[in-house]
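Aggregate trends can hide what the representation actually does to any particular protein. The sequence in question and its structure tokens are set out directly beneath this paragraph.
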Amino acid sequence: MIEFQNVSFSYEADHPVLQNVSFSIGDGEAVGLIGANGAGKSTVMKVLLGLLPCEGKVLVDDVEVGHGTLYEVRRKLGFVLQNSDHQMFMPTVYEDMIFGPLNYGATREDAEARADAALERLGIPELKHRHNHKLSGGEKRMAAIATILAMEPQAILMDEPTAALDPCNRRLVINTIRSLSQTKLITSHDLDMIRDTCSRVILLSGGRIVADGAADTILRDRALLEANRMELPLSLQ
């Protein structure tokens, strides 16, 4: 579903952010992308979305990411931002949910059907006509996920999906992520959440992949994590 082939990127010539990064993610796989601040996680997401040019090759469902393919690639990807305020920009949840499908050519009837289906799937139909500025942090995060589901993407990218949530809303978001059948790539410093939602982990350090394997194996490796400026998940300490 997603493939990076020897991808490198630099903001400045002598300061590479990504260095020969290669990995592939299969259809339906849930992968956690972890690393300390500055490891290159956000850059991977931006390159995948075609927001940054890079050396090497990035493929989404066998389509190479490039200037001429961005429309096709972005139809396949849904991106849940860390700050839902940057994602939910229409007055109400429902208006946000139909905005994307309409702009990608769906009829009004189809867009509304997708929105209703996503809200029902997540068990939040009561948020349909709520104003975005009146939602709690957890409600807004759930609404943001519903907005992406209405786009019917093949893969969902999430940046710190549980950041700044109280324990109840954090658990609600984790359970929601686990219920999604799409391919998932999730970046987070919340390693307990990654352990709960992902079967595989890719560990970045200094713009390189230093580990790629079973989530429970990597997240139990204290020496590996500490060598890369991270700590064991709280549940394993």
Q: What stands out?
A: The first helix runs from residue 41 to 48. The radius of gyration is 18 Å. The longest strand covers residues 2-12.
